[in-house]
Structure formats: C-alpha cells, structure tokens
Amino acid sequence: MAALLSGASLGFASGISPGPLTALVVTRTLEVGFSGGLRVAIAPLLTDAPIVIISLLLFSVLPPLLEMGLTIFGGLFLGYLGIETMRSARRAELATLAASPQNASTDIWRGVLVNTLSPHPWLFWISVGGPTLTRIWTQGPLHALAFLLGFYGLLVGSKVLLALAIAHGRRYLTDRWYQRILLASGLLLIVFGALLLWRVAAPA
C-alpha cells in the first residue's frame, strides 16, 4: 500500500504539472473535444517503457557515490519543478483555442513525440523514478509493480480527468481552481524532493 500511494502521489504531481504533454492535452481537448485530449494523455503508456528500462540500467551500474549524487539531484530537481509549478500557477489559464481538426493517429503520434523528446520523463526516471523504484524493488516485485501501477494510473488518469473536465465540465474547472490544483501539485513535488534529500542525509 505504501508503494502504491508513493507511486500515485508522484504520478498525480507529474500528471497535473505544467509541461509540454499537459499543454498538448489541454490544447487538443479545447480544439476537438475529450477524444483528442484522451489520445494525447495515454502517450506515456506508449513511450515510457524504454525510458524506464534505460534509466534503470543506467542507475544499476552507477557507483554508490554517483548514485547518491543523482538522488540529491533528483530531490533538488523535484524541488525546482515544485517551485516552478507554484510560480506558474499564478498565471495559469485554460485559454480557448480555435478548432483545427486532425485525425486520431496524428493526436497519438504528436503525444508520443512530445513525451519522448521532452527531457522531463528522462530526468525524472534517471534522477527520481530509477532510485525510488530500485529501492522499492528490494522489498519485492509486487511492491515495484504497485508503485508503477500507482504512478501510471495517476499520471495518465490525472491528464484524462483534466481533459474530461475541460471538455464536459468547464464550469467546474475555472482558471482559479486549476491554479489551486497546480499549487497543490507543486507543494507535493517539493515534499517528495525533501524526502529524497532526507534519505540521503539520514543514517543507514
């Protein structure tokens, strides 16, 4: 349960935070409706497997001192993302865009390319996700699976819900509420960054 909640918390914070993929989810939902946002939102399920594998292989061969350095960088990176998320929340808006219909495959491939070429998933899995998943794996494969299920369930699920809210419940997701959600996710990122730094500083 702890692994599941840990993954879910990180997934939610990553899923709702501003970034190229989140921006594309909002854009396509506003342009063509929920189906466009949904096709973009599932991009991590199609692209992250090689990112995770490469990141874990890289992390597994690193010397302990470099592992510690990467973990510290991961904590600082999460803190930076949290601060940037909270700063951007003050001016975040769900702007209405003009329609530009495209077919389903275009939406999917656009989401795949944006997620693959974005540095965020690579930095996350090398500096945060890799160390965290490696640590959880020592508790058992089921714990690692729970972490991944929680992470991707909320990473993709939060983007799907965002698209659904924009498409069908715009009156319930005002700019003010979107800003509040971003503030909460930014704070969550800072908390997880502090926890990573605490693990490095705490005695074994």
Task: Describe this protein's structure.
With 204 residues, the chain is mainly alpha-helical. The chain has 9 helices and no strands. The longest helix has 28 residues, at 141-168. The chain is globular. It starts with a helix and ends with a helix.
Brief descriptors of the model:
204 residues; mainly alpha; globular
**Overall 3D form:** globular
Largest sheet: none
Helix content: over 70%
Helix/strand structural class: mainly alpha
Unreliable stretches = 96-101
| Rg calculated over all Cα atoms | 17 Å
Number of helices: 9
**What distance separates the N and C termini?**
23 Å
Short note summarizing the structure:
The protein is mainly alpha-helical and 204 residues long. The chain has nine helices and no strands.
Topology (SSEs and partners):
Layout: H1 2-16, H2 20-32, H3 34-41, H4 43-60, H5 64-89, H6 104-117, H7 119-137, H8 141-168, H9 175-201
